[in-house]
Design a protein that fits this description.
By secondary structure, this protein is mainly alpha-helical. Strand 3 and strand 4 form a beta hairpin. It has 15 helices and four strands. A two-stranded parallel ribbon has the order 1-2. The protein has a two-stranded antiparallel sheet with strand order 3-4.
């Protein structure tokens, strides 16, 4: 069953997707400290559980906990219950943990594929919208709607720019302060709201001119945004790996900015021109509507990178924002609230249709299933089956990528600085178990998006 009449991916794109090799560098400060927890956790996961199923379960939990928070404070000004903030912190930690072990599970079960990498990034693009929105509600940032708009769209922009520079350079780069650090900071914000109440963020700071406490992390977020934006821009404008400094697809390094501007610019203009103050009155609904189309554009960029193809500028998801714009142009002959609901539903359904279609086409090409894997797992094939234990351990390190860079695609990543490696106790099956055909389990990190 397909969601579109015609296929979205051409045979040439599918072939390049099958040949795609994952490349990543990671110097995150917190990842090494969380590796023992992730390694222990993946050892408790049954071998029959598909990695993509782990990813989608984490995303669903994250969305549900955020929607609970939105239910109690849809405009970001009401004070949500403390237990809702605590639940949101737990949901984000749950998502972070499952997102980190899906790649490890893929190697445990010998089920790594390019689909896993694509599916993982797709879920992250959706999660970014809800994580940013939940953080704003937890500190009641609805009293500062422009700050709320800035924070949410900054998160979406940084995620898009990370894959933009990947489309240019062919390598996904994670800095010292990146997504893991941002997630842990937001978990801390939720916990503070849960312990002291969200009103704690409204406390004035006399030493800083009487501003609210919540403004302090906003200034820090602006600093981090500028830092990460500079790092991504330096990679993009240095030139790509394609011919004459182009992208991996041979296109201009600036081409990905056009489809993104088609989303961000209308989002800002519509919020400013609304006579009903549609954004100020319904910020959560507004951000979710434009967040879904942003997630789809980001997914299309990831697909373009993995298939080494050109990215189209226009998208059917833009019909939602277009309806809002046309309604304002004709003096809001329909209530903007209803048009906003239509835009949100349209963008959400369009995103699900696109992602579902792409996954089904890739599954058909690779002859795999999306949420099921062979059980018992296929035995891992090594070229040093009869070698000594030391060479076997080296093979394990090569096969499972015992460093801070790995992916669901199963390809080895470029080495990183040895100072960032973390040696943790390995949990392995005995030789008798290995000879029976079951895979050995070794800890390995997952890319932190």
């Amino acid at each position: 069953m397909y969601f579109y009449k015609n296929k979205l991916l051409l045979p040439a794109q599918l072939k390049k997707l099958g040949d795609h090799k994952y490349s990543c560098t990671n110097v995150s400060m917190l990842d090494p400290f969380l590796q023992p927890w992730w390694c222990w956790l993946v050892g408790k996961v049954p071998l029959w559980l598909a990695p993509n199923l782990i990813t989608i379960v984490g995303l669903i939990v994250n969305i549900i906990t955020t929607l609970i928070l939105i239910y109690f404070s849809p405009n970001g000004r009401e004070e949500p219950p403390r237990w809702a903030c605590a639940l949101c912190a737990l949901g984000l930690f749950f998502y972070q943990s499952l997102d980190a072990i899906d790649g490890k599970q893929a190697r445990r079960t010998n089920s790594s594929s390019p689909l896993g990498e694509l599916f993982d990034h797709g879920c992250d693009s959706i999660s970014t919208v809800f994580v940013a929105l939940a953080a704003c509600i937890s500190v009641q940032l609805g009293y500062y709607p422009r700050w709320m708009f800035f924070q949410c769209f900054c998160a979406m922009t940084l995620f898009y720019c990370a894959h933009w520079q990947t489309y240019v350079s062919g390598t996904l780069r994670f800095g010292k302060i990146d997504v893991t650090e941002a997630q842990c900071t937001i978990i801390g914000i939720h916990l503070i709201s849960a312990v002291f109440g969200p009103s704690i963020w409204m406390t004035k700071l006399p030493i800083l001119g009487g501003i609210d406490i919540r403004i302090v992390p906003l200034y820090f977020a602006v600093f981090v945004f500028g830092l990460l934006a500079y790092e991504n821009a330096s990679v993009i404008f240095t030139g790509g790996v394609g011919k004459n400094g182009s992208t991996v697809a041979g296109t201009s390094v600036l081409s990905p900015i056009i489809p993104f501007l088609f989303v961000v610019v209308p989002a800002y203009v519509i919020s400013q021109k609304s006579t009903d103050h549609i954004y100020e009155n319904y910020p959560s609904l507004y951000i979710m509507a434009f967040g879904m189309i942003t997630a789809k554009v980001t997914n299309r960029l990831v697909v373009a990178h993995m298939t080494k193809s050109e990215m189209e500028y226009l998208d059917w998801g833009l019909i939602g924002p277009l309806c809002l714009f046309l309604n304002q142009y004709f003096n809001s002959f329909l209530p903007e609230y209803y048009i906003l609901w239509f835009a949100m539903l349209w963008c959400s359904v369009d995103l699900i249709r696109y992602c579902g279609q792409v996954c089904l086409e890739i599954c058909a090409y690779l002859k795999i299933e999306l949420f099921r894997i062979p059980y018992p797992p296929k035995p891992l094939m090594t070229s040093q089956a009869g070698s000594s234990s030391s060479s076997s351990e080296a093979d394990d390190q090569h096969l499972f990528g015992l460093n801070n860079n790995d992916s669901r695609s199963g390809n080895k990543s470029p080495p990183i600085s040895p100072s960032r490696n973390l040696t943790v106790p390995a949990f392995r099956r005995t030789m008798s178990e290995s000879s029976s055909g079951s895979p050995r389990v070794t800890p390995s990190s997952s890319p932190r998006k």
